[in-house]
Amino acid sequence: MPAERACLAWVLVLGAPLAAPAAEDLVLPLDPAALRDEVAGVSVVSSVQAAGVPGPILDLAFLADDRLAVVSVDAVSLYRRDGGALRREAHRPHPLPLLPVRAPAGSVRLVETEQAFWVATNALAQVHLFTWEGSRLAEVQQADALPGGTRYRPGTNVLESPSGPLVRQRQGLAVSPDGRLGTLDDGEVSWTALRVGDAVARPWPRIVAASSPRPPGTSDALAFYELAAEPRPLGTLPLDGSVRALAARRRGDEVALAVAVRGDSGDRILLLRLAREDR
Amino acid sequence: MRRLLGALLGLAAVPLAARASLGPRYGGEIVVGVAELVPTEAPVLAQTTDDRLLLGMVHERLLDVEPDGTVQRRLADGWASAADGREWSLRLRPGLTFHDGGGITGADAVRSIRRFLRTDSPAARRLAADLDGGGAFAKGATETLAGLAVDDAGQVVLRYRAPLATPLAPLASLGAAVTSSGGAGAGPFVPVLRLPTRLGFTAFAGHLGGRPFLDAAHVAVAAPRAQLSELQAGRIDAFAAHAPGSDPCVTLLLVLDPARPPFHDPDTRTAVREALDVQGLVQNFWSDAEAARGLLAPTLLAPEVPASPRPPAAAPTLRGAVILRVGSDVPPLVSQRVVAHLQDLGLEVAAAAVPPREVWTGRAHARLVLWSPEVAEPGLALQELLSLGEGKAAEGLLAEAWETRDAARRRGLLDQAQSALRAHAVVLPVAWVPVAWRARDGVQGLRVARDGRPVVEDAWRQP
Q: Which end of chain B is more exposed for a tag (fewer CB within 10 A), N or C?
């Protein structure tokens, strides 16, 4: 995306000020989370969770090993893992008025090589580009669509993309509106027969983590698959709540996986450290 | 050992979730079965559950009201009172449009309320009686209506003759829905097709709650007794049934005509009421329902004292031939049992099963009808029932309750009014009935509003 990078550089060169974040005093303790580890070839090294995260969370992404961008129905926030707590360092409410939507949806898309990310939600008429530096978060640009022309179909949670309609696009993975998992290669999607929920991440190149395709009223789980023409299930981690978004980041041999979970008492963020077994 | 126990407790503390990640998903279509089609898409008095379903798909009201009188925002997103509660201003949500693309304005709201005031709706009659100049306007004696205007800020201003307990409640009627000058609605679905037995709708992207999940919805006529087989055959995807799944919100009423013999005689009506074994009828013939302990479903006006089973009174002998009109949505076993009760009293009964909306029309001495109020607010609901018969005492109590803003005192007056209405034995409650959707696997999100209105706009198809 050279044009996009040029545009971002232009904004930075002109010295668009990184606005000081509003005073943030939201510190959420990270408590141990007990999980039943039943995933072949993947072990949970540690698991902690922060409850009471303002939500509903629509998407999240790792900006650094210890930083998360979180988009919720009404704001974009920057969180940092700070010892035994998750600290909200910056918080930018979405510009009003928001469009009425029956099922809120949102996407965070990282800009490679820059400390920046795009945010799109189906309640915003435009997509917004943010830069971050330390605990500072600044909106630097608005556009009609995400790079490549992807945008929400008005009023829906469906992303109109050059690859077709999607409900999620992340780390070379795509989820179709009917829940099929696909892999993206040069903008072309290869669809598998596997059905997943709306949340996906790719902790390792050949491993996919996905939310459950089960309908409401049944239990949810974080499912792991080995990518192949027909993905092979590796196992699941049952969760108390509904998985709304996933983000993964490699850290040496391990992977940090952030899971936004919606439960009866609100949203929480589960932070897992995963490792491969028997490689 | 302690560590092992701790680990086990840790696992036990992670219960399986009650919900999953799938959906809701946008797209797809649904076919809903109804007993009959509402004759027009224009806002009219909703008389049946199907009417409420259909009108709720096409139209949107300024506001909704909870049984406790709390007003909920719909097209109006704020209101304020002045003049000691005699004047109310409604502010419309900005940016909303009708199906035809026109913006919704205060002038549209005023025109719609004026139309509503001249309809045959109990809530409209109430509003007309309360608004300055409303009575004369409703009768067509004048085109002037001092109690309704748009102010300079585009707000709808209603001026009442006196401060009232729930002055805005009549506007929650589906008949008071706001339409454009061309008749377009602002509900979640746009009507695009009307055939004698089928209606077609597409999703309205500009709905105040957001675009519905479904791309399209179809409504097809299916006789109540055939709806389940139509569902199983795949010809319809869902239908609203009087079945468990919600709080009881519909009342099965036996309505006796006090203007016709033999029910013009209060003693005869009382004899019918006393002889009607409601407990036994429900227990033996309609297990999905609950023996009614009041005229209004408990979600509207909870009975204060649980009913104790009582044996049917010794039946006096009555004489005469009566016509009973029965809605076709009343289970046959139940209507047959009611007929048997009347026959046991000595009456000759000719029962006629008719489509639900036709129960109220045509000559009859009695009507057996599944009823839910035009507006789910107990004061208005009791006034609606009062309009079916007579009762000076109840009328006075209801008028007092309508003007009483103290909640506890108002509740007491409503209880007394209900007792007075029951004492007249014109409207006899038989059963409280829930409303629930029956749907094919994979149809999600169908729900029933608290007032018993089946709601389609949140439905979605599981892939």
A: N
